[in-house]
C-alpha cells in the first residue's frame, strides 16, 4: 500500500471512529464543570459504567439556558444541569422535554416538575467558603454584616448574580436575611451597593480553585464546595452559615427537547439518580435527593443541625419568577 493510500486509510479510520463516538457513545451535558460538585468524578463514572462519554462543560446556569434557547431549532445538548429556577424557566421556554428517570418516586414532591421537565439531583446550603490562611490575620466572618467591614476589603467574592445561579442564590439569601422577600429585592440591592465599597471580586464562573489559591479568601458558595476543600483537598477552609440566616436550594437536571442523543441523555439521567450516581454527590459532601445515599462518613463532615437550622427553603417557583426582574435591577442599580 502506498504512503498516500495508507494516510487516506488512517484518516478514514480516525474520522469513522470520531463519528461513531459522536453518534453512539456520547451525551452532551451543558453546565457539567469538573471542579463543581465533583462532576469530574461523576463524568468518569458515567463513562465507566455506561460507556457513554460526557464531555466537560464550563457554562453556568444562565449561559446554559441561553444556549438552549438559541439552539432551540437545532439542539446540540442532550441533558442540562442548573439551578432550580433555571429549570423552571427552561420548561417555560419549551426547550426541555418531560422524562421521569429511574427512582422517580423517591424524589420528594416539590423537588420535581410533576411531568419530569426538571427534577432535583442534590441540594446545597449557601454560606461563606473561607480560606482561613488567606485572611491576613483577620477573623473568620460570621455574618452578612461582617463582610462590609473594612478589614475584608478586596477579600470577598461572589458569582455574578445576574448570570450564575449561585450568585442569584446569594442575592436571595442576603435579601431574606435583611428583611426582604421575593417581591422586594431592595435590601439585596442596597447590600450589594454597600459591599461594592469593599472592592469585591465578581467572576461569572465557578471559582473553587481561586479560593484554594487564596486569590479569593471569602466566597459566597455552597457547603459542599467548602467541605470538599477542607476534607478532600486538605485546605484550611471553613464553611460559615451567616448568623442572620441563609437558604437551601436544589440543583436539577432536564432532558433537552429534541436532543440529538436523547437515549444516551436518558441513560445519563438514570445514572445520576442511581445508587452509584447519588453516592458520588454524597461523597462530594452534597445532599443527594435520595437521602439514603448519604454515608455516615459524609454526614460527619457537615456542620451541626443547629447551624443548618438558620438555612431555609423558599418558594422556588416564586424565586424563578423573580429572577429576571432582580437581574435587571442588579445590572442597572449596583455600582
UniProtKB/TrEMBL annotation:
One of its GO terms (cellular component) is outer membrane-bounded periplasmic space. Keywords: Signal. Coiled coil: none annotated. One of its GO terms (biological process) is thiamine transport. Residues 1-24 form the signal peptide. GO terms for molecular function: thiamine binding; thiamine pyrophosphate binding. Pfam families: SBP_bac_6 (PF13343). Gene3D superfamilies: Periplasmic binding protein-like II (3.40.190.10). This is Putative spermidine/putrescine transport system substrate-binding protein. It comes from Franzmannia pantelleriensis.
Amino acid at each position: 500500500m502506498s504512503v498516500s493510500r495508507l494516510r487516506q486509510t488512517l484518516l478514514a479510520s480516525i474520522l469513522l471512529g470520531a463519528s461513531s463516538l459522536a453518534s453512539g457513545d456520547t451525551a452532551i451535558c451543558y453546565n457539567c464543570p469538573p471542579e463543581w460538585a465533583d462532576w469530574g468524578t461523576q463524568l468518569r463514572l458515567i463513562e465507566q459504567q455506561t460507556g457513554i462519554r460526557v464531555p466537560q462543560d464550563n457554562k453556568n446556569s444562565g449561559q446554559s439556558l441561553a444556549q438552549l434557547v438559541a439552539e432551540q431549532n437545532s439542539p446540540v445538548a442532550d441533558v442540562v444541569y442548573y439551578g432550580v429556577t433555571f429549570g423552571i424557566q427552561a420548561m417555560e421556554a419549551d426547550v426541555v422535554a418531560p422524562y421521569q428517570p429511574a427512582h422517580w418516586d423517591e424524589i420528594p414532591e416539590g423537588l420535581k416538575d410533576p411531568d419530569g421537565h426538571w427534577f432535583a439531583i442534590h441540594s446545597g446550603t449557601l454560606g461563606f467558603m473561607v480560606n482561613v490562611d488567606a485572611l491576613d490575620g483577620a477573623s473568620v466572618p460570621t455574618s452578612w454584616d461582617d463582610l462590609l467591614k473594612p478589614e475584608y476589603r478586596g477579600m470577598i467574592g461572589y458569582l455574578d448574580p445576574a448570570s450564575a445561579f449561585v450568585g442569584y442564590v446569594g442575592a436571595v439569601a442576603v435579601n431574606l436575611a435583611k428583611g426582604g422577600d421575593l417581591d422586594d429585592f431592595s435590601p439585596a440591592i442596597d447590600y450589594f451597593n454597600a459591599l461594592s465599597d469593599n472592592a469585591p471580586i465578581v467572576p461569572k464562573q465557578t471559582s473553587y480553585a481561586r479560593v484554594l489559591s487564596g486569590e479569593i479568601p471569602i466566597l459566597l458558595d455552597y457547603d459542599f464546595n467548602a467541605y470538599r476543600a477542607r476534607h478532600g483537598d486538605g485546605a484550611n477552609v471553613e464553611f460559615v452559615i451567616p448568623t442572620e440566616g441563609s437558604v437551601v436550594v436544589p440543583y436539577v437536571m432536564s432532558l433537552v427537547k429534541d436532543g440529538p442523543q436523547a437515549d444516551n441523555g436518558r441513560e445519563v439521567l438514570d445514572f445520576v439518580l442511581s445508587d452509584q450516581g447519588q453516592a458520588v454527590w454524597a461523597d462530594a459532601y452534597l445532599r443527594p435527593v435520595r437521602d439514603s445515599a448519604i454515608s455516615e462518613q459524609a454526614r460527619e463532615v457537615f456542620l451541626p443541625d443547629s447551624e443548618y437550622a438558620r438555612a431555609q427553603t423558599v418558594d422556588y417557583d416564586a424565586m424563578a419568577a423573580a429572577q429576571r426582574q432582580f437581574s435587571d435591577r442588579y445590572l442597572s442599580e449596583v455600582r
